[in-house]
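Hi R.,

Here are the chain sequences for the assembly we discussed:
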Amino acid sequence: GAGVSQSPRYKVAKRGQDVALRCDPISGHVSLFWYQQALGQGPEFLTYFQNEAQLDKSGLPSDRFFAERPEGSVSTLKIQRTQQEDSAVYLCASSSPDRDEQYFGPGTRLTVT
Amino acid sequence: GDSVTQMEGPVTLSEEAFLTINCTYTATGYPSLFWYVQYPGEGLQLLLKATKADDKGSNKGFEATYRKETTSFHLEKGSVQVSDSAVYFCALSDKGGGNKLTFGTGTQLKVEL
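And here is the predicted structure of the full complex:
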C-alpha cells in the first residue's frame, strides 16, 4: 500500500512569505505527527493529532506555526511570515492506533531566503 | 525531559567489520526504544524496536538490546556491507504523550570496500 506522502518536496520562500506544507498519512492511521529536522540534527517534535484533534502542540516554536487536520486524514502545516531560522526539513509521520512505531514521509525541504 | 544521546560520527568501517553505535537515554517511565535509518536521498525508515527491558530488537542483521540498568540501546551488526552506509538515529517514544518520538542527533556510517 501507499506510504506517507508529503508535498511539495522542496519549497523556497522569501523571508516574510507564508507557506503551507501538506501530509497524506497512511490510510487508516489515526495518529499523525509533524517533526522539524535541521541540517545535521535529529528530528524534533512539533505537534500531534489523533484523528482531527490536535492533542499536543508543545513543540511548535512560535505562534507563526499552525497545523490542522480538519477531517482526520490529510494535515497541513502552515508557517506564517517565514524567517531564515525556519529553514529545515519538515517530516510527517503516521501510526496505527495499536502500534507505537511511526512511518515517515520523505519530508519537505524548506529554504527561506 | 526525555533525551537521547548517541555517539558522534562519522563512523568509517571496512566491509565485513563489526559495528557498534552507542545510544543512551533519559526518560521518565518506561519508553519504547527505536533505531531509525536514513539512506542517502531517502526518508526515515524504522530499523528495529524494543518495548520493554531486556527485549532485543533485530532486523537485517542489526540488533539492539533494551538495557534498563544502563539506560542504553546500542546498535550492533556483526558484518557491515557498503549498502549499510546511512545515518542511524536512536529514538524513544513517550507512551504517555501519544508516542511522540525524541531522537538523538544521528550517527553517519560510511562503509568502504
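The interface with chain A takes residues 4, 32, 34, 36, 42-46, 49, 51, 89, 91, 93, 95, 97-106 of chain B (CB under 8 Å). Residues 87 and 108 of chain B are 4 Å apart (CA to CA).

Let me know if anything looks off.

Best,
T.
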